[in-house]
Amino acid sequence: MSTHPNEAALLAMITGRADELAEITRDLIRFPTINPPGDAYRPCAEYLGERLRKRGFDVQYIRAEGAPGDTDSHPRINVIARYEGGPGPCVHFNSHIDVVEAGEGWTLPPFEGVIRDGKVYGRGACDMKGGLAASVVAVEALLDAGVPIPGKLEISGTADEESGGYGGVAWLAERGWFSRPRVDHVIIPEPLNVDRVCIGHRGVWWGEIETLGRIAHGSMPFLGDSAIRHMGAVVEAFEERLYPRLADHTTVMPVVPDGARTPTLNINSVHGGQAEPQEGRLPSPVVADSCRMVFDRRLLIEEDLEAVKGEMRALLDSLSQTRSGFRYHLRDLFEVRPSMTEPDRPVVTQTARAVQQVLGRPAALVCSPGTYDQKHVDRIGKLRDCIAYGPGILDLAHQPDEYVEIEAMVQSAQVMALSAWALMSGGK
């Protein structure tokens, strides 16, 4: 590992900035960057950009014009700040600035950034404004350590990760912002615990199945054909044929938790027949002529997306052959292929070594059961040297009273600083 010449002073400097780390996180939480619809993106991006501009970064604000959700009232604003050091590689820290809605059940204000008992509370504290703050402190400490920067440093705050990243990293990757030669290594500070290096994620296919029937009077259902009953047959086929097959597959991906080491299928919703009646009103007596199911199929690195789709269509086609009147439509809604960075890539090995150095224990290499913006860096940017590493506990994301521990932010900032230095110095 290419060690920093003032390593002890660098780590001590970051430890001494714990209060500043908490304040940056608090400031970021106070921008209610709720997506959808995409509120407060510009002021949040400008807060980050102005801070880094004062430290010598070249700052650009980039609107993802034409991306889903981009409007004049809710522009998809991204900020990218770059520091030109020496001739070495570029290390890019990418964080999304959007958060999900607060929802119910909070005991603390979700957008005030309350600091209590060594934690910063608020929507986005864990996912992932605490990680963004840690990356800022990490690079600022490197600048203040009194040693010339051997490569380039970038920090970005990007839009819309919570809705697929199409107004953020995907849009930017299509235009070369996450590709060589501009960028060599990407670290995404998602909340996966300070002792874990996340090297990838499962894939996903969201689809919709619609079963078709024939409307009739509810008192004479034999004159119609219930689409809901046909959908019941689909669910039964899942239970008897598909779920057992999925349980038989295992993966080399180190996915956490263990239950995600097999492919999974979740039924998100089922809607059939007429809309639910308003309070005080009764429904009309009709046989449902349509029923729709939205499903969420998660894929392993060993699976082929087209083969997975073919398996689903074969199951539905078999029902068409064996069940009288069964007709269906199958529609694609969203898809992401699995992504996994090779464990011997420099961004993996150097970050894992930094974890060992800071925490005194080995880093666990894991994969995420869901997806995050690595998919776009890999699939669009064609950049394999990408991981997720950051403070926070993933289980707290999107929950009421979400928080991030200040000590974890300090530790992750130390890991980020050490790994960035090693990577800029050409560490393998």
Automatic annotation (TrEMBL):
Gene Ontology terms for molecular function: succinyl-diaminopimelate desuccinylase activity
Gene3D superfamilies named among the record's database cross-references: 3.30.70.360, Zn peptidases (3.40.630.10)
InterPro entries per record: ArgE/DapE (IPR010182), Bact_exopeptidase_dim_dom (IPR036264), Peptidase_M20 (IPR002933), Peptidase_M20_dimer (IPR011650), Peptidase_M20A (IPR050072)
CDD domains reported for this sequence: M20_ArgE_DapE-like
Keywords: Cobalt, Hydrolase, Metal-binding, Zinc
SUPFAM superfamilies xrefs: Bacterial exopeptidase dimerisation domain, Zn-dependent exopeptidases
Enzyme Commission code: 3.5.1.18
Positions of the Peptidase M20 dimerisation domain: 199-319
Pfam family, one: Peptidase_M20
Cofactor(s) the protein requires to work: Co(2+); Zn(2+)
PANTHER family for this protein: ACETYLORNITHINE DEACETYLASE, ARGE_DAPE-RELATED DEACYLASE
Family label: Belongs to the peptidase M20A family.
Protein name per UniProt: Succinyl-diaminopimelate desuccinylase
